[in-house]
Amino acid sequence: MTIEASVGSMFSGKTLDMLCRVISKEKGGLEWGVDYIIFNHGSDTRYGVNVIAAHANEGKIQAPAVAVNDSFELLNHICDWVDDGWCLKEGFKGLRDLFIDEAQFFDDDLVQVVDYIDRVLGVDVMVAGLDTDFRGEPFPGPIPGLLAVADKVIKHKAGCQCVGKCGNGATRTQRIVDGVSAGYHDEIFFVGAEEAYEARSKGHHEFRQDDPKPVPFTDRFSK
To answer: Which of 98, 206, 123, 128 is nearest to 162 (CA)?
Structure first.
């Protein structure tokens, strides 16, 4: 029984890593919806509904996924409530692996749901998502808790996409609005892809000049 968290900035290969695991399962003879299953958050329709996708050198790789809107809907898809606990439905009795993409969009209860699926139901779980938001701060929601309960954490890096290509590893997600860096107080939850985001190194992660990131602890020293 294992919980694995695959996190990092956008374009760092989180979903690609997950899809490679899925391909490995398929080559080993395991069947989608019987031996393993993939979930995605319903708000992520960039590549269509009920699908996860990533780009690799050979083109787009994708796999079917069940779109759900919260952790209870996910649990209810594979389980029934029997007496005083959740039990796998008849069609999922042989479930070995469960994958969850875009985990940052789920509610905080996902931490307990994942723990229950792993610890009580005996199903290995892999979650993928952004560990920081566009401000470079911990993404609000379940990711911090999932990192805490995970048995293994993989931190991915992308290549920095700043002008001039610095060549440094990118751990931050840069939001771009109308060609300009987003302001610190812009909306956190905004689903987008290349048209709205870039991967940036810490040194090239920036904010709109009229709305910079606040200097920490100034309230403690201001007169």
So the answer is: 206
Neighbour order of strands in the sheet with 66-68: 66-68, 36-41, 97-101, 124-130, 3-8, 152-156
Q: Give me the residue label for tokens 């996910």.
A: 74
Which letter does DSSP use for residue 92 in this model? G
Q: Please tell me the distance from the alpha carbon of residue 205 to that of residue 136, in angstroms, as a whole number.
A: 8
Is residue 102 among the annotated active site residues?
Answer: yes
Q: Reduce the DSSP state of residue 150 to 3 states and report it.
A: coil
C-alpha neighbours within 13 Å on the C-beta side of residue 78? 28
Question: Greater confidence, 220 or 8?
Answer: 8
Query: What tokens were used for 81?
Result: 């409530």
In the chain the domains, ranked by start, together with CATH numbers, are 3-157 (3.40.50.300)
What is the token pair recorded at 56? Answer: 């690799």
Rg (alpha carbons) of the chain, rounded to whole number: 19
Q: How far is CA 1 from CA 46, 110, 114, in A?
A: 32, 17, 11
Q: Whats the size of the chain, residue-wise? A: 223
- Indicate the pairing of strand 172-177 with strand 197-200: antiparallel
User: Annotated catalytic residue: which of 4, 102, 137, 194?
Assistant: 102
- Residues 3, 147 contacting (CB under 8 angstroms): no
- DSSP assignments along 60-82, one per residue: EEEEE-EEESSHHHHHHHHEEEE
Summarised one tens digit per residue, pLDDT across range 61-117 is 999 999 999 999 999 999 999 998 999 999 999 999 999 999 999 999 999 999 999
